[in-house]
């Protein structure tokens, strides 16, 4: 980041013109956060009830020994991918969609903002629907009108911390993450006790069938969109390594825990939803606490994502209007039934989103490691990289259709290799990063 850019940011900050979350500007050094702070916020993001549902569906298709390796493989693929792009975000100080301006061009980046922001609006709707349905079940409320009212109330409340940005999300996560870990650990122990311990769990015969590639694609799909936007938080990291490790903790360990809790609950109680397992244990009150804390810490991050994507599209230094608009749209999607197509939605996310992250990673390695140029010299479209994305997305789709290897991995690898090939020898003169 050049001295002229720093001076401009400092003047704008004094004048109160820049959102304290810097949606379209590099995060200045004085606003950077600790590794602990980043890890807590990102863990709050990955502690997500629908991830448990994915774990439950995967768990029904494998014996326990195979299941463990499948979940580890899927979480490792997701964790390493997100950690790499998160480290790049920490180094540049930019959100994912702002980095796409360098990789896809100033106009081409609008595609990335629509894709990433749009999928996050969809996730917001999935989460709102989950909250409303499980709350109504816990309180024994029936009727479509009541469920819609819960969706509207939940959608509005969960957007509040995103509206206030990083500070609001950290305050919520520092309370909820330890609570969720303790409660989930205790219920997992109870689940094992229900089936006679580890030996009883290993004796359970799979009731469904699923390929390992499909299972890993579903795991990656749970956070393909959100993980690709990890730079939205890691840009606050003090060092690139802090951004890398915060992502690895959240998207490998946090994701693995959520998948494991869901799988064990499904195998032990025949119920894939962790909250409903709590209800079966007679812990309705704690179930509601877990539900609200779990979904809120994820959905405020989701709202934050589509807020900064909207800010990039409009070139606005405030994300707040776009947080509000996305909350309204996501809630409407919940009301119209987006939850009913969750698994198909996850598969498509695992196909379309990772190649975009692969383009950013490949372009950074090819051209921007030494620094980022002034945004004023960027082209409207970086056609080479846009073509590389299309090729990588088609390759991921073919991999899924053919049942060959792991589609998200194919998408990322093809994107990185394609960008390195088309950008060979085109490294521009750039300004030092940071």
TrEMBL record:
InterPro entries: CodB (IPR030191), Pur-cyt_permease (IPR001248). Gene3D superfamilies: Hydantoin permease. Keywords: Membrane, Transmembrane, Transmembrane helix. The keyword Transmembrane applies. It is found in: Membrane. It comes from the Bacteria. The keyword Signal does not apply. The chain crosses the membrane at residues 35-60, 66-90, 111-134, 146-164, 171-189, 209-230, 242-264, 276-296, 322-339, 345-365, 377-398, 404-422. Its main location: membrane. It is a multi-pass membrane protein. One of its GO terms (molecular function) is cytosine transmembrane transporter activity. GO terms for cellular component: plasma membrane. Belongs to the purine-cytosine permease (2.A.39) family. This is Cytosine permease. It comes from Blastococcus colisei.
